[in-house]
Amino acid sequence: MSEVALEKAVERAMKQIHERDDDFTERPVGILRGYVPVQGEGIIDGKPWYFRARGDSWSLSISENTGGSPIEVRWGNESGWYYEDNWGEWPDAGYMSYEEAWKIIEDCFVKFRAGEGYHGT
Hints:
- By secondary structure, the chain is α+β, with helices and mostly antiparallel strands.
- It has helices at residues 3-20, 70-74, 98-114, and strands spanning 29-33, 38-44, 47-54, 57-63, 80-86, 118-120.
- The chain has a 6-stranded antiparallel beta sheet with strand order 1-2-3-4-5-6.
- A hairpin with a 4-residue loop joins strand 1 and strand 2 (38-44).
């Protein structure tokens, strides 16, 4: 499946979930893909998030704006929430399992909702 087809399938699935579930914005959704780096993206509380694990660290950013770019949050070009940490030794993080990545992402969502981490422009 091409990347464009995969993105369209995720969009359709998210739309179907939203139509069936009024509490959709409370449930994070997303997808992980690739290695070196491991990357993921999705929606939490109606805001886009981006995860990246490469080298010896990982980071997760969430845009403050519904249509914003969480990647720009990472570089300080857009308002939002950001968290990062070390993970293993170079190049371990790039080979992180998806199971481990999801644990980290879910922990970040807890921190985000609790107001922990970096908030800025």
